[in-house]
Amino acid sequence: MASKGSTTTTGDEPPQQKLSPSGLPILKIPGSYGIPFFSPLRDRLDYFYLQGADEFFRSRVARHGGATVLRLNMPPGPLISGDPRVVALLDARSFRALLDDSLVDKSDTLDGTYVPSLDLFSGHRPLAFLDSGDPRHAKLKRVALRLAAARMRHVAPAFGTAFSAMFADVEAAMAGTAGDGVEFNKYNMRHMLDFTCVALFGGAPPSKVIGDGDDGGAAAKKALKWLVFQVHPIASKIGIKPWPLEDLLLHTFRLPAFLVRRDYADLTAYFAGVAAAVLDEEAENSDDNSAIITRDELLHNLIFMSIFNAYGGFKIFLPSLVMYLARAGPELHAKLAGEVRSAISGEVAIITLAAVDKMPLVKSVVWEALRMSPPVAFQYGRARRDTVIESHDAAYEVKKGEMLFGYQPMATRDERVFERAGEFVADRFVVVSGDEDGDGERRRRRRRMLEHVVWSNGAENGEAAEGNKQCPGKDMVVAVGRLMVAEMFRRYDTFTATVEENPLEPVVTFTSLTKAAAVAGHGGGEEA
């Protein structure tokens, strides 16, 4: 008797369908890479300009009869990427292969099919570019985990200070406009860099040490410039027109690292001072010989973790979160304001992490925003061995060394996992103690859904560890999202904003902010 997966036949019987271990038919991966150079170039133009990312993937799924595991080319392609060919995993089930560290090697796959020049990191390879099996990975991840845990208690007060300063600036700017509105992203960019550095290291914020400049935000602009030099091959619509010129400048050649050397030197000098205590402590604790991490290497890793991982994430995530709140409108705003003000009654100075943990709707809103718009839309990894990848309806053989790619918004909006998957459902993850089934099916359903909220390179109900690639700052990012919502609706009853969706982050422009009565200082709300 043939076992599952066998293709043995007898006599004139037709060959049996080869099956995966779970009984799915193993099919040839659909799609093709086309003509070298020309097809990747056309795919790049489709992806960035002619279709956009969402339609790029949707159209190819439709072209192949709904198959969600496909062969295709990913930007940047010629001339930056040596090999643009990937196997795309575009549903929740197949995407999980990219979260299995035993299955995929993530050496130098952070940005996909190209690797930024190490000159941008003073010649060091940051933790995010190391595979989980690299001895240096465990040592650097251990530092990141210790730092995140030790500084967690500083997150709420640092964020409260940053939020107050940010929205004081927003309100002042709105008072000075003639109804044109005020862009949130500009103030978020400035103040969240200060927050990130103070939360992680304490001391003076970079705006005070590096300077704010004549028009404000000099430190943040240096950080942003350094980020652009890393990700420009996969960025688009950043203000260069016409788009063929942008494509030529951003996606055809690498911007030389020396153009950002002075800015990075300023950032390095700042972190060398503010992170000195961390560097000293790790030097004292370095008592094993599994991997020697020099002080200089650790310093540049701390810069990368702080600016690329943390600040870069907040710069993208918080505008997305505010976008969904703006679109939800006053009905959700009233519910959030009621929950927040009830939970913090008696608190005067800051909203604590303990307080936001008692806000089920606030928590749900943040998880839902992370599900709908994960800060990092892509995951890459090379297959460690020949393997079988399963989607919902079929399985596919992948060869050792092939690049696997996942487009996370399609995986986290999978209709086979989430009801109304393409909609922002504010209370999707709400579980309230005392519900009729609050400790039963509703809680189990939330746990199953959170397993597919994977913005952190792992399940939301999973934990970062030295031996995996899950984000060490996962809990901090979630906490900041909750604090953002809570602070918004302690300060304001409601707000309105316009949204311009862009590939990297939506541009949110406040058009009105209605202060809560207690904040306004009189019996009724006050509109900015």
UniProtKB/TrEMBL annotation:
<keyword id="KW-0275">Fatty acid biosynthesis</keyword>
<comment type="pathway">
    <text>Lipid metabolism; oxylipin biosynthesis.</text>
</comment>
<comment type="function">
    <text>Involved in the biosynthesis of jasmonic acid, a growth regulator that is implicated also as a signaling molecule in plant defense. Converts 13-hydroperoxylinolenic acid to 12,13-epoxylinolenic acid.</text>
</comment>
<dbReference type="GO" id="GO:0005506">
    <property type="term" value="F:iron ion binding"/>
</dbReference>
<dbReference type="GO" id="GO:0004497">
    <property type="term" value="F:monooxygenase activity"/>
</dbReference>
<keyword id="KW-0443">Lipid metabolism</keyword>
<dbReference type="InterPro" id="IPR001128">
    <property type="entry name" value="Cyt_P450"/>
</dbReference>
<keyword id="KW-0479">Metal-binding</keyword>
<comment type="similarity">
    <text>Belongs to the cytochrome P450 family.</text>
</comment>
<protein>
    <recommendedName>
        <fullName>hydroperoxide dehydratase</fullName>
        <ecNumber>4.2.1.92</ecNumber>
    </recommendedName>
</protein>
<dbReference type="GO" id="GO:0020037">
    <property type="term" value="F:heme binding"/>
</dbReference>
<feature type="region of interest" description="Disordered">
    <location>
        <begin position="1"/>
        <end position="23"/>
    </location>
</feature>
<feature type="binding site" description="axial binding residue">
    <location>
        <position position="471"/>
    </location>
    <ligand>
        <name>heme</name>
    </ligand>
</feature>
<keyword id="KW-0349">Heme</keyword>
<keyword id="KW-0444">Lipid biosynthesis</keyword>
<keyword id="KW-0925">Oxylipin biosynthesis</keyword>
<dbReference type="GO" id="GO:0009978">
    <property type="term" value="F:allene oxide synthase activity"/>
</dbReference>
<keyword id="KW-0456">Lyase</keyword>
<dbReference type="GO" id="GO:0006633">
    <property type="term" value="P:fatty acid biosynthetic process"/>
</dbReference>
<dbReference type="GO" id="GO:0016125">
    <property type="term" value="P:sterol metabolic process"/>
</dbReference>
<dbReference type="GO" id="GO:0031408">
    <property type="term" value="P:oxylipin biosynthetic process"/>
</dbReference>
<feature type="compositionally biased region" description="Polar residues">
    <location>
        <begin position="1"/>
        <end position="11"/>
    </location>
</feature>
<keyword id="KW-0408">Iron</keyword>
<dbReference type="Pfam" id="PF00067">
    <property type="entry name" value="p450"/>
</dbReference>
<dbReference type="InterPro" id="IPR002403">
    <property type="entry name" value="Cyt_P450_E_grp-IV"/>
</dbReference>
<keyword id="KW-0276">Fatty acid metabolism</keyword>
<dbReference type="GO" id="GO:0016705">
    <property type="term" value="F:oxidoreductase activity, acting on paired donors, with incorporation or reduction of molecular oxygen"/>
</dbReference>
<dbReference type="InterPro" id="IPR036396">
    <property type="entry name" value="Cyt_P450_sf"/>
</dbReference>
